[in-house]
C-alpha cells in the first residue's frame, strides 16, 4: 500500500504539459557523495511527416528543415559541456542530431537498435487518417489499454521497456563519472524516465516529450535525480558540484 501511495504522490507532482520538471533544487538539497554520471536525454527534432501525424516507430523518416534547425540549436547549447560520449538509436531522425552534437566534441556517435522507438508493426509509417480507415477501432483500443496494446506485428510498451532499460543501464555503467548525451525517441525517453522514477508503464503519457525536448538526469552514489524534464536549450545549466 505504501508503494501505491508513493506512486500517486509522484504522479500528482508531474504537470501533464509542463515544459520542465525539477523535482529537487540542487542548491538546497544535498546528496551523499560527489555527483556521478550526468545524462542529457534528448528527443529528436521535428520529422518530415509531422504534419500528417504518422506512426513513426521503426519507420525511418528524416527530420524536417525545422527539425534539423532544432538539432543545430541543441548541439550549440550542449557545446560548452564536457561530453565524453554521444549515443542514439540507429534511425535517421535520432542519428542526425547525435552526429551534430558529437562533431562539436570530436566524438563519433554510437548507435544502438535497442534505443529505437516502439514498433508499430503493420501500422508503421501510416498517418492517423490511414490507420483509422484500414484498422477501424484499433486506435480506440490502444488508447483504452495503452500498456498492453500491441499493433499487428508490433510491440507493447512493456516489451519496449524490456529492450530499452537494459541498454540504458549498460550505457550508464560505462560512464560512472562522465557527462553524456543520448538522442532518442519520445516513447524511449518516457520509458527511461518512468523506470528511474518508479512509475508504471501505464502512466507513460503523463510525461510530455516535445520535439527536441531535453531531459537532464544526475546520478549520485545514493540515488538518481531527474533535474529537468521536457526542457529546452535555454534550460541547460552547469553540472552540480
Automatic annotation (TrEMBL):
Q: Which CDD domains match?
A: HP_PGM_like
Q: Where are the transmembrane segments?
A: none
Among Gene3D superfamilies, the record links this protein to: Phosphoglycerate mutase-like (3.40.50.1240)
Under InterPro entries, the record lists: His_Pase_superF_clade-1, His_PPase_superfam, PGM_Phosphatase
Chain sites annotated for binding substrate = 93
Q: Which Pfam families would you find in this protein's record?
A: His_Phos_1
Gene Ontology molecular function: phosphatase activity
Q: Where is the active site?
A: 44, 117
Q: What is this protein called?
A: Phosphoglycerate mutase
Q: What organism does the UniProt record list as the source? A: Nitrospina gracilis (strain 3/211)
Amino acid at each position: 500500500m505504501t508503494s501505491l501511495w508513493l506512486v500517486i504522490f509522484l504522479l500528482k507532482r508531474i504537470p501533464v504539459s509542463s515544459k520542465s520538471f525539477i523535482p529537487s533544487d540542487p542548491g538546497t538539497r544535498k546528496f551523499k557523495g560527489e555527483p556521478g554520471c550526468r545524462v542529457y536525454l534528448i528527443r529528436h527534432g521535428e520529422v518530415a511527416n509531422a504534419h500528417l501525424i504518422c506512426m513513426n516507430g521503426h519507420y525511418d523518416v528524416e527530420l524536417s528543415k525545422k527539425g534539423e534547425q532544432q538539432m543545430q540549436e541543441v548541439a550549440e547549447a550542449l557545446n560548452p559541456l564536457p561530453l565524453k560520449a554521444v549515443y542514439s538509436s540507429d534511425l535517421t531522425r535520432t542519428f542526425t542530431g547525435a552526429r551534430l552534437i558529437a562533431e562539436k566534441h570530436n566524438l563519433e556517435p554510437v548507435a544502438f537498435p535497442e534505443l529505437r522507438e516502439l514498433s508499430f508493426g503493420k501500422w508503421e509509417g501510416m498517418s492517423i487518417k490511414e490507420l483509422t480507415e484500414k484498422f477501424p477501432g484499433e486506435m480506440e483500443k490502444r488508447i483504452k489499454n495503452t500498456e498492453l496494446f500491441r499493433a499487428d506485428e508490433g510491440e507493447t510498451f512493456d516489451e519496449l521497456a524490456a529492450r530499452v532499460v537494459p541498454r540504458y543501464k549498460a550505457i550508464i555503467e560505462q560512464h560512472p563519472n562522465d557527462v553524456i548525451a543520448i538522442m532518442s525517441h519520445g516513447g524511449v525517453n518516457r520509458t527511461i524516465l518512468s523506470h528511474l522514477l518508479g512509475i508504471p508503464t501505464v502512466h507513460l503519457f503523463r510525461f510530455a516529450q516535445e520535439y527536441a525536448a531535453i531531459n537532464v538526469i544526475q546520478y549520485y552514489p545514493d540515488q538518481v535525480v531527474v533535474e529537468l524534464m521536457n526542457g529546452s536549450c535555454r534550460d541547460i545549466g552547469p553540472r552540480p558540484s
